[in-house]
Design brief:
The protein has 302 residues and is of the alpha+beta class. It has two domains: 13-60, no CATH class; 110-300, Heat Shock Protein 90 (2-Layer Sandwich), CATH 3.30.565. It is built from eight helices and seven strands. A five-stranded mixed sheet has the order 2-4-5-7-6. Strands 1-3 form a two-stranded antiparallel ribbon. Strand 4 (236-245) and strand 5 (248-254) form a beta hairpin. The radius of gyration is 41 Å and the shape is globular.
């Protein structure tokens, strides 16, 4: 008994065998039957090729004249592939989510990441303030102690603005009154009981992008008043006012000292920083003698 070569079906075996033997010599197969089988195979193959070519021509016509329909068909095909990934298994079908669901999930994840970032930044600022305070206590040089004290105040102001951000999630504004009061409270702790700070602020919101510059401005003006704003009795009394007018914010810091004239070239001083921050807010900075120093910062409500 002859064995069929591996990899050959019965029809392929017939074709292979007829190449080496006469057509009538195929055992058990009449020539008419052999030709009939060949014809059937040829007709089926030609029909399959013709159908494939017709389908490809139709799809190319659709792609050429209806590009939007082509994209929709492609999208529908991807969805169908996802839905039919496991048709006979217990695995749940992959149902495409709506744009609204995806947007909601993205917003929720962004808020969680922002909360985590705010929390880590607050902790890092507290650690940095602690390190500076440790250096301040150990320093013996007056100039070094003054530099460290100024750095502690500035970082404390940054931390105050950061807490204002953290307390207003999902909003573009912060509470202006709470921000100014918090900066003044931080300065009272830093200066001690010999400096009196009277904070008078009106209620109102403040854009978040203005919170950090404003906190630093208030801190610089308070530090300047605490150093040079003592009255004739040696007392330091500072009044802070913050109000909002139509289209304008106004900050006023006044002491009872001798007053001073603003030096336009004082870029490296604390007042130079105030001027630069006021310009960053699109505002102005001015100083008047009344008879103490009356510092005013105005910037637009954008």
């Amino acid at each position: 008994m002859r064995r069929t070569p591996r990899g050959l079906t019965s029809d392929k075996m017939i074709v292979a065998s007829t190449r080496s033997r006469p057509e009538g010599a195929v055992a058990g197969t009449a020539p008419s039957q052999l030709f009939q089988r060949r014809a059937i195979i040829l007709v089926v193959a030609l029909g399959t090729i013709a159908t494939a070519c017709k389908t490809e021509i139709e799809m190319n016509t659709i792609r050429l004249h209806h590009p939007k329909a082509n994209r929709r068909v492609g999208a529908a095909r991807k969805i169908a592939d996802g839905l039919e990934t496991h048709p006979a298994s217990d695995v749940p079908s992959i149902v495409p989510r709506s744009i609204h669901d995806q947007r909601t999930e993205t917003i929720s994840l962004s808020e969680q990441l922002l909360d985590e970032w705010n929390h880590r930044l607050k902790n890092n600022l507290q650690i940095l303030v602690g390190l500076l305070e440790s250096g301040y206590r150990k320093a013996r040089n007056p100039e070094a102690r003054e530099v460290l004290s100024d750095a502690i105040g500035r970082i404390g102001a940054i931390g105050t603005a950061q807490r204002a951000y953290y307390c207003a999630p999902g909003s573009t504004d912060v509470n202006g009154q709470e921000l100014v009061d918090a900066v003044c409270a931080n300065a009272r702790i830093l200066f001690g009981s010999h400096v009196s700070i009277d904070c008078k602020t009106a209620r109102g919101n403040l854009p978040k992008e203005a919170a950090m510059p404003l906190a630093l401005i208030i801190n610089e003006l308070l530090m300047n008043a605490a150093k040079y704003g003592g009255n004739q009795h040696g007392q330091v009394i500072i009044t802070v006012g913050f109000s909002r007018r139509p289209g304008l914010y106004e900050l006023c810091v006044q002491d009872e000292g001798l007053g001073f004239d603003l030096d336009p070239s004082g870029r490296l001083s604390g007042l130079g920083l105030v001027r630069a921050l006021a310009q960053r807010l699109g505002g102005s900075f001015s100083v008047e003698r009344t008879p103490g120093a009356h510092c005013t910062v105005r910037f637009p409500d954008q």
